[in-house]
Amino acid sequence: MTENADMRAQMPLGLASRGYSGVIQRLNASSAGSALPDAELESRLIELGFVEGARVEVLHEGIVGRDPIAVRVENVTIAVRRREAMAVIVA
């Protein structure tokens, strides 16, 4: 990780707006407020490619409540609910 990445403020991906790009710092499933158990949510996110160090970009937001969001993780585009994206901490 570079010094510039360390200096950027960390925030949940679920708070990001369209056009945001950053790097995944960690997962924090306990703060997501998802209906899924923490371990299951974390496992699903990892399977989708949300791993530490991966580059992410918010491509699109849904019309109703800005949910779901389309996110590019490295070279893959994925749609996730904002409440699940709250578990992905980015900078």
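The record above closes out task 2.4. Task 2.5 opens with a second protein, given below.
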Amino acid sequence: MKKIYYQDSDFERQLENLYHRPSYPPEIEDSVKAILKGVRERGDTALTEYARKFDKAELTPEQFLVDDEELKKAGRKVDSECKKAVKEALKNVMFFSEQRIPAPWSCSPRPGVIVGERFEPMDRIGVYVPGGTAPLVSTVIHTAGIARAAGVKEIVAVTPPGPDGEVHPAVLYAMRQAGVTEVYRLGGVYGIAALAYGTESIRKVEKIVGPGNAYVTAAKKLVYGEVAIDMVAGPSEIMIIADGNCNPEFIAADILSQAEHGSGLEQAVLLSTDKDLIDKVEQEISVQKKLLDRQQTVEKVIENGVFLIEVEDLDSAADIASLYAPEHLEIQCARAGNIAKKVRAAGAIFIGQWTPEPIGDFCAGPSHVLPTAGSARFFSGLTVEGFFRRMSIVNYHKSALKKEVDTAVKFAEMEGLDAHGRSASIRFKTEK
């Protein structure tokens, strides 16, 4: 845990180090490339080998697919309260998504010209659901549930199996509820490769979405172009803006909620105008961490990834937050809504002390698949629009083309593309 104060002589340099953080260690790309190449060239044979190597699971190609009977059995293993939580979260996420479904439109900006847009849902998308350090049931809802709201016909999920080849029953139950049409017990880089390239037993998808560890993130980046992806997202992170009136217990709990994610590379940053609050939060972190199950993981993040920063004022905090561009930004200070309006980049903003970040992870409505490592400056979180193809529509009447043909011909001349110009002018060659 590191404290930084705005009076420090190297305050700006320390902030710069925070702003420029990698999505994943670049040195892992060579090993990721080798796995991708293996699946692309050897298909199911490679998947079998990698399942054994990385997940300690002995699988044949016939066992990759989770069949309907297994999905039904999984549902019987999930208690009623868990089922209720899944259904409630799915309802909220789908409702939010349904408000954003793009609608076709058209207009006539000039006589004889109609322009507009059409949107069609993708046919086949892939969702990656992490399962190594924790069965992320909520990720199913925040990916597949949104694809279902978009009307995607085929929703293909991959998730790591346990050594016995089994998938957590709550994950499978959520997949069935969210409309997943195919489930494969394949994890990590080799699961991404199966979605991107296809194999003898798995058809490739058009887009891959969902979070993952550093290796999964690198794999998604490397298959981009073969398929679409949602974003390149690294370890989870949270930033909190607080003043002296905030509850240090709440802040410490929120910091620890991200520290327990599993990679040890997570970050949690507090920006506060009050030095006493910083000290109280530090004490609370030490107290609350002892109550957690995942203490070894949490300790690593506390040591390397927790930063408690005193800032001069709340406007400075908003500026720092915009440059850091956190995945999750909590604003717990007075006038939280006003401060939120000054933030220019963040994956998701949680306003007020009664809006803890995990409510967004689970059931608030917007997807928890969000940009990290500062990429919120140029990426946005997963939304329903990401599952649609957008097609622009252009429709000219003869009279409209005649008015603009000279413009088209002139552009063709400037660019040295005479066939382009002739394509327009030939339509009027008999009209002199």
